[in-house]
Design goal:
Elements: E1 2-8, E2 14-21, E3 25-32, E4 40-46, E5 60-61, E6 64-65, E7 68-72, E8 76-84, E9 91-103, E10 117-120, H1 124-127, E11 133-134, E12 137-138, E13 143-151, E14 157-164, E15 168-175, E16 183-189, E17 203-204, E18 207-208, E19 211-215, E20 219-227, E21 234-246, E22 260-262, E23 281-283, E24 305-306, E25 320-321
Parallel strand pairs: 10-14, 22-23
Antiparallel strand pairs: 1-9, 2-8, 3-7, 3-9, 4-8, 5-6, 11-12, 13-21, 14-20, 15-19, 15-21, 16-20, 17-18, 24-25
């Protein structure tokens, strides 16, 4: 916050104070030292001289005006203008003006798909097709990511880009919210199409419930954050926590044509990710016999089902619960 002294002399005097802001954000101004009964009007103009809003007449108590806050949508120079209310008074007693500029977070501008901030760029490992295991489980290239941002100015939307090597799930929650603040979230694919609708997760102790999106294809996705209804702004940073969980390295293997070749005695590490995922294995047999399938490593509340098809694709029976 910076401050200067000024006077309204002669009657009809207008004073202008120039400030600069590095990114979109807010500019706040207030005045003290006014003689009883004297009140000031405030107006903000951009570098071209265009008004940001209209003249504002804040209440004055004990010679101090209420603070005025303007939302500015672009970096640059701005001028805070002052005048005697109604141009009805002059005073040789100095007033003192206090001006504060609060730019948005360092990721600005990221208010649209094209300027989205990368928080999970493609990794060399994610691009590799080879299967690998850890403790008998498929390595899924799960990534936990964190980034800070602010909702400044009011109406700000923040876009964060992540990369999925395969279809899977993207989960997110937001912490650091202040009382009454509700965040809106939506996921978009690389073309900008929405994956679902805007979500308004419940906030408890400043942290939202975790939201999860199922993504049906690999590629780039963008998480969009905004204040619910554009109702609030805040210079206090929020923290966005994101987890990307691609399906197993054998994806895609959902259809007969994509079936994963497998030896009758082999162990294959797979995952049912995202929700609704189906995994298809092609098993070569060399004569009549019994085929036994056993699944392990699944949560207790998950019951996988199995269907066997012949080489023509015709079902040999019906879907059956798989032994665990």
């Amino acid at each position: 916050e910076r401050s200067l002294n000024g006077t309204i002399l002669p009657k009809g005097d207008h004073d202008g104070y120039r400030v600069a802001i590095d990114r979109a954000g807010v500019i706040t101004a207030r005045v003290s030292g006014l003689v009883d009964g004297n009140q000031l009007d405030f107006l903000l103009r951009d570098a071209s001289g265009s008004s940001v809003g209209v003249w504002i007449s804040p209440a004055t108590t004990n010679g101090k005006s209420e603070a005025i806050t303007w939302d500015v949508r672009a970096p640059g120079e701005y001028t805070v203008g002052l005048r005697a209310r109604g141009n009805t008074w002059r005073s040789d007693k100095p007033y003192r003006i206090f001006v504060e500029t609060v730019p948005g977070d360092i990721h600005e501008p990221n208010g649209d798909l094209g300027s989205a901030t990368w928080i999970a760029p493609p990794s060399k490992r994610s691009a590799g097709p080879a299967a690998s295991t850890e403790s008998g489980q498929a390595v899924l290239d799960s990534r936990v990511l964190n980034v800070e941002g602010t909702i400044l100015p009011k109406g700000d939307t923040d876009h964060y880009r992540v990369f999925m090597a395969r279809k899977g799930t993207i989960a997110a929650d937001v912490s650091g919210l202040e009382g009454g603040q509700v965040m809106s979230l939506i996921l978009r694919d690389g073309s900008g199409s929405s994956v679902g609708v805007w979500l308004y997760p419940t906030v408890t102790n400043g942290t939202t419930e975790r939201v999860t999106w199922n993504v049906a294809a690999p590629g780039e996705y963008v998480i969009v954050l905004a204040a619910k209804g554009s109702e609030w702004r805040s210079s206090k940073p929020y923290k966005l926590h994101v987890e990307t969980l691609p399906g197993d390295v054998h994806e895609p293997n959902e259809g007969i044509g994509e079936a994963l070749p497998s030896d009758p005695t082999s162990v294959v590490n797979l995952s049912l990710t995202p929700a609704g995922d189906t995994d298809v294995l092609r098993i070569q047999t060399y004569g009549p016999g019994v085929l036994t399938v056993h699944a392990s490593g699944l949560p207790k509340d998950v019951q996988p089902q199995l269907l066997v098809r012949g080489s023509s694709g015709r079902s040999l029976g019906v879907w059956r619960n798989c032994d665990l």
